[in-house]
């Protein structure tokens, strides 16, 4: 069904464009530059649309491109014998006589007989029209936007409106680059507005749009989307989102967000939940949730407390902490997921068991300012610089706005809003030896002549000493152990470092949290000794609720595919060139 809708939308683009071209013939006066040659009764200026640039994947395969077609336009006022003309056109176009007859009998203006006729067919019809065998018929060249990979990465790629303008995604963000510039032609026309054979007076050709090349790998993108779709079905989740990156270059290799099909009688912003809850991952394809969906992330936020505590010398990787079953802060009780007696835990155990109480104890020794500064350095609440439509930096409260209980809630991922991409970026800094690299989605542009302009290297800056990043990697590698929260994220033969997050969904318009409604998250890096790849998976309202039981196995599935595709060894060696290079495609993006 989605494919059918897309084709109809593309046809609408052609139909409106073709009709607009005909209206230009009738309504636009003589061009001032050629005023000495033209009269408003015999010559008119026609707009020539520019072929749109393509959007290519990193391997040169087109996500979005165009094909040349001919639109067949009828002026019913010039057609006096409809039946034989309809039969001839129907045979040439392969359409039913009834549909063609309907188009030829339209009252009150031009009509589109066929918006996307093959060029060979359009040429035959144009010759017959010029010979007088098909009066009232005009053939208008046009381009039809097509998406060869279908729905794959649709929220990232975007789509084009009937007016030929990008409406969301990269089609919108790069509209000026992709659209090119229209041209014009000065033509002689009859008194009825029909072109005169051989009547071209002057022409300025359009400038085709420039193509863009992405860092996205369509093979991995497909693997990711299939894994998310399966998880949504298995856990009856409202939706899921994932991003896979090269943490050293900032290149986004896959970025996906899927939603469960809407059920009859449910809200579009939260299923059967009350209207004051935050929206679920949307069914609207134009929302790219890795950058647009900010949520309370849960325990993946513990990275900020541990990074600050290690850097300030409050702890070392071998430190221990006496952890009670619960803490009371200003009358609010904070506890771990499972009840336990007071126990002495190592730093790796606090992370592996995702102890809220142990983390809060460290945060209390650090204080609000140190916690806030650590989050900010790691990129939380900061624009990641991707410049994607609809992207948000989320929200991180400054210490001056913290409530008395915030020292307990903020370090464990409450009282803040962050996007999946921001979370992954912060863990990428750990994977990259303490250097945070801005994410990159567009590798460069390709002109119609094959000229390549590479995008500037992504900005990078150090956010922690390399030694601290190494210590964090070691601590996070315990999270996927057999007695930890994410054994399902493990990959045979590889050491995986990462963190789970299970966070309750707050109500949107009032305080408190929804009973039984959670986000499950896992973010990780592989191989932990020398990370080559990183990824985040977030599942919206799954059953079971825990990130270690829902997002973690999806992470493992996605990463197994990525490690195999890029030839990454358990030691961190890369044996394939697929990860190190982007094939800057020399094509112009228009196919015959």
From TrEMBL:
The keyword Cell inner membrane does not apply. Residues 241-559 form the Penicillin-binding protein transpeptidase domain. Its EC number is 2.4.1.129. The keyword Glycoprotein does not apply. Residues 49-195 form the Penicillin-binding protein dimerisation domain. Gene3D superfamilies: 3.30.450.330, DD-peptidase/beta-lactamase superfamily, Penicillin-binding protein 2a (Domain 2). Keywords: Glycosyltransferase, Membrane, Transferase. It is found in: Membrane. GO terms for molecular function: glycosyltransferase activity; penicillin binding. One of its GO terms (biological process) is cell wall organization. One of its GO terms (cellular component) is plasma membrane. Its main location: membrane. InterPro entries: Beta-lactam/transpept, Beta-lactam/transpept-like, PBP_dimer, PBP_dimer_sf, PCN-bd_Tpept. Belongs to the transpeptidase family. This is Peptidoglycan glycosyltransferase. It comes from Acidimicrobium ferrooxidans (strain DSM 10331 / JCM 15462 / NBRC 103882 / ICP). The lineage of its organism: Bacteria, Bacillati, Actinomycetota, Acidimicrobiia, Acidimicrobiales.
